[in-house]
Design brief:
This protein is of the alpha/beta class. Helix content is 33%, strand content 25%. Helix 4 (142-154) links the parallel strand 8 and strand 9 (159-163). The longest helix has 19 residues, at 109-127. The relative contact order is 0.17.
Length: 314
Amino acid sequence: MASEEPLLFLSDQDLEALNIQPSEVADAIESALIAKADGRLHTSPKTAILPGDGRYAMSTLAVGEDGFIVVKQVTVCPDNPAKGLPAINGAIMVMDAQTGVLRAVLGANWITAVRTAALSAVAARRLADPYAETVAFVGAGVQAHAHLAAFSEMFPLKSICVFGRGQSNVDKLCRKAREMGLDAEACTDAKDALRKADLIVTSVTLDYSIKPFLDARWLKKNAFAAITDACIPWLPDSMAAFKTVIVDDRKQELESEKPMLPYDLITGDLTELVSNQTDNDRVDRPAVFAFRGISLGDYAAATLAVRRATSIKA
């Protein structure tokens, strides 16, 4: 990159307008996982600070040999919706890997939504029933919408069931699904929602005061669960019901102050899954991808967006 190149700014609206599909982000993540395994991408574990009042500040860092450094900072603020603001806000810096010169600033909300769903998609490609028709959503916010978009591209979906506390969000997700030609209903019983579903997505607020209310033993034997909320709503003693337990990064999970689940239950991480180092034979019990989000995902999505935007402007 030449030093005289102008700084690129991409707002969340600009990023959405690039029309990058969920499958493209998933492909970029898989390429990044291979690069990491080959030593061509270097990442650090996600850092998090809980400053109080339910706020949750997170940052990621990744350096690739393809010319980029990507740093992301986001903060989850549960009180924001009441102020007319998104619950999650932040920014991403993309720098030249050789010089450290800042090349682009991106909004973090679009990246965070699509890369999280794309991480689930990478796992689902290997662990979910390819003929999955039903999805149960526990939580109906940004991640539910992002996963609906990703999974509808991957599977022959017919229906969704939504269990959530905010009725307006539940209704919004159901309307979106119906616009996509799917049947959709608001579920009043979490057990009933989970036991019928081929795919499960949980994305409750990252609030550790929430009392667990989901039981993995309710799931069908060939179900796949994508858990984006650090397993907060899941009963800890039920997690052994999963035969295959994939996390996004073993080191990150091992070093976390608040483990999502017992470390000895972990079958492997996403890099091991993509490189076929895990046992995925799970015909008799469900599988789960439980994750916090990793710098690799932010790196893959951000660099994909920068390259797409740069090619359009050229």
